[in-house]
# Entry
Amino acid sequence: MQVTPLTNALGAVVEGVDVRDPGDDFAAVHAALLEHEVIFFPGVHLTEDEHMALGRRFGTPSIFPVSRHLGATEPVLTTIVDHPGQANAADHWHTDVTWIAEPPKIALLTAVDIPERGGDTLWASGTAAYEALTPKFQDWLAGMTVVHSVEGFLMGVRKKLGDDGDDLVDALRRGYPPVEHPLVRTHPETGRRALMYSSEFMTRVVGVSDDESRAVLDFVGSWIKDVRFHVRWHWSPGDLAIWDERSTAHRAAGDHFPHARSIRRLEIDGDRPFFDPTR
Ligand SMILES: [Fe+2]
# Structure
């Protein structure tokens, strides 16, 4: 198996392994994911069954809260289509579903229909961003707690569904009250620290004034957007990306309209984020 890093912050291309059925190579794939935070397998063209089976190697595939509301009792692959009639809801820096207490730990995304130009995805390493801070700023941010809210997600639902989304909005608001997560998160497997960032879901820092909260979140937002901490992937149909949701944020560039873009995603259940001051 060859692992070729893409930037100094994160990301690597993995070749020489049959990711459809990695067998004993799975441990090496998993280790590459932990080390590089997002790994790419060009042109593998996973079927839906293969996609789900690979996801199960990493853990328990998630039932997305929206799918659950619509009656799903088994995990489902989510196909996300962005076209002129349906704006790209992921065109901002975020970590997926941080508005729940135990957000997903890993995501597996494969490209289905890709425009000729544009539609790239960018990832930011919260680990690299944290480690590039001076110790004084690391100490200042570590231990801060941030409220994450479903409201940012509901704005997208309203945009997409209009009044038809009323039931879903009510159900998600009832089912998912605001939740607190650490701003600096300790990775449960590697022990490394990472900034946890999700622009539309983070509403305020706990225990400080409104002005102070805004200043902290503005700083972290501008810091994580620094290109030093990024990798950018230009998709071809069939490419597979697997990323660690516990240490990265990502953004889908909404620059491909009027051409449509279609991807298929699976999330893997995660644990409650925590900060461990002793690690
Ligand atoms: Fe996302």
